[in-house]
Amino acid sequence: MKRGGSDEAKRRAGEAAADAVDDGQVVGLGTGSTAAHAIRALGRTVDSGLDVEGIATSYQSRELAREVGIPLTTLDDATPDVAIDGADQVADGDLIKGGGAAHAREKLVDAAADRFLVVADESKLADRLSAPVPVEVLPDAREPVAASIRDLGGDPELRAAERKDGPVVTDNGNLVLDCDFEAIDDPAGLATDLSALPGVLEHGLFVGLADAIYVGSDEDATVREQ
Ligand SMILES: O=C(CO)[C@H](O)[C@H](O)COP(=O)(O)O
């Protein structure tokens, strides 16, 4: 699915981050249209002889990696040296992710990596995180978690599928509540509160995880070390 700014800006961010991958490294392969540019660029470097292995964060990134010829491994067998992943919003180096409902596996792989590179076009940058926070819940936990989110000041909405009747079902077989907290003053505190709710598999607040943000525009890509 395509979200955010121009495809050219996303391509510049994704390709710049892929350029930072060294021979012999294991790479976490993020999900979304910006991360897909990085995966395609890595596929081209594999074609030209670079020895890298990927760890997919979703069905989408696994299929794309297979298509472009990146050999795959898993967290059972390897630790990612670097992960490259997109974001829905970036503020002060913290992120909201999960626009593609892949944030549970993304957080697992991105947090495991020695270096986590975020790839984003300029439209994702904000002064404060304020986009709805995706919260993946076990199907049985939908109502209790929604009630707890309201108690925390959020407005949860079950994510509906686009070309299927009913809700989005994640790669893990769960549901997603998009939770609007408006401007988030304390992302770390909210992340802790959401993680503590029974039935929450994972939420899309990525606090203090990013090592560098690759920001693409229609002209170039710049790197902001965190
Ligand atoms: O978190 C994600 C998927 O769960 C994506 O990385 C995020 O939604 C950004 O996507 P895009 O690069 O297509 O704008």
Automatic annotation (TrEMBL):
GO molecular function annotation: ribose-5-phosphate isomerase activity
Record text on subunit structure and interactions: Homotetramer. Homodimer.
Organism for this UniProt entry: Halorientalis regularis
InterPro entries: NagB/RpiA_transferase-like, Ribose5P_isomerase_typA_subgr, Ribose5P_isomerase_type_A
GO biological process, one term: D-ribose metabolic process
Family membership: Belongs to the ribose 5-phosphate isomerase family.
Residues annotated as binding substrate: T31, G32, S33, T34, D85, G86, A87, D88, K97, G98, G99, G100, K124
Matching Gene3D superfamilies: 3.30.70.260, 3.40.50.1360
EC number: 5.3.1.6
Matches recorded under Pfam families: Rib_5-P_isom_A
Task performed by this protein: Catalyzes the reversible conversion of ribose-5-phosphate to ribulose 5-phosphate.
Keywords attached to this entry: Isomerase
Full protein name: Ribose-5-phosphate isomerase A
Reaction catalyzed: aldehydo-D-ribose 5-phosphate = D-ribulose 5-phosphate
GO cellular component: cytosol
Keyword flag GTP-binding: no
Active site (catalytic residues): E106 (proton acceptor)
